[in-house]
Amino acid sequence: MLVRIVGLGPGDPRLLTIGTIEALKAIGRAVTVLAPPDLTAFLRDNGIDIVTGFVDDGPLFVRGSEDEIARFVRRAEAARDTGDLGLGVLGNPLSDFPGLPPLLRALERCAIATEIVPGVPRATLSASITMPLVPLPPQSAHHSWDDLVEIMARLRMGCPWDREQTHRTLVPYLIEETYEVVEAIENGDLDALCEELGDLLLQIVFHSQLATETGKFSVADVVDALSNKMVRRHPHVFGDAVIEDVDAQWRNWEKLKAQEKTGRQRKSRLDGIPRHLGALQRGQRMQEKASRVGFDWPDTGGILDKLHEELTELADARRQKQDDPRVREELGDVFFTLVNLARALGIDAETAVREANDKFYKRFSFMEERAAAEGKTLSDLSLDELEELWQLAKTQAA
Known about the structure:
By secondary structure, the protein is mainly alpha-helical. Helices cover 62% and strands 6% of the residues. The chain is built from 20 helices and five strands. Strands 3-2-4-1-5 form a five-stranded parallel beta sheet, with helices on both faces.
């Protein structure tokens, strides 16, 4: 059996899409939810049998009531032998039907196939009943969260590039937008931060829209899951638990995480740290988690001794054989110990190295500019001249 979920537009028969009419005609019968009489009459005139009795409470069904959806699915199962069924909802099911994800999941559990046929969204285009065209809003228009979700749904319908995207193809953009947020923060540029946070939010809404279209979850599920998680993990804020200090809060946080479904599935306390994090950042996160169970140096003196030990082992490996894999291993141990030192000093290792990179870039660029002013390149200069320029850059380059 197939349930074809189609969008009926804002409710005016003139705004039904050709795709909606053809999709319903192909099946021949449909359940309509909250459709006005003139719309259902128009569908009947076009040879579509309007089936009643499948939905008891239209508003609750559209909002995703578990009881209403369960009743619809039971009735659909009972009518398997009568053939496929159309389900018409006002607007576009991808943006105007909050109950779509739970309905798709319920139908999937019963091995009932589904198809989605978009329609004209209700919220933005209902004005087209009286206006032939809806002008694009000015850039200064104020929009709501619901507007953003609808805009994303419309992009998926109308933009060729957006239609081609998948969760996997969006990964590079998600990473890029995250780093652009970080760059705006580090530059102290609040205007840029506002814009970049919006770009990052778009990625979240985009992934949620993709999941909505396959019935896996919606952006509302994302918000619910996050809100429930925050309340659950902060009993000292939303409950009557007492937390003495930040260390106690971290211990309680880890304990609560371990009791959650994902926490119970993890074999190690270090699981859950993304493998795609930068190596320095991942190392620091692992060390932080290990320290919360007492596996840590008592002070920085022990870490400095360990650093000296690792440097000695690196020197020994180099003396034995320059290209020995042990050289890389020992160098990795040096970096890992330096990350531990950064953590002990309260410094984010990734940020510290990124700042060092920026400092080197500015000083090296200063050297290039000074050489170019004399009609030279850096490769034209001797080692002593390069060193002289470097010392000058250290004092004059910002």
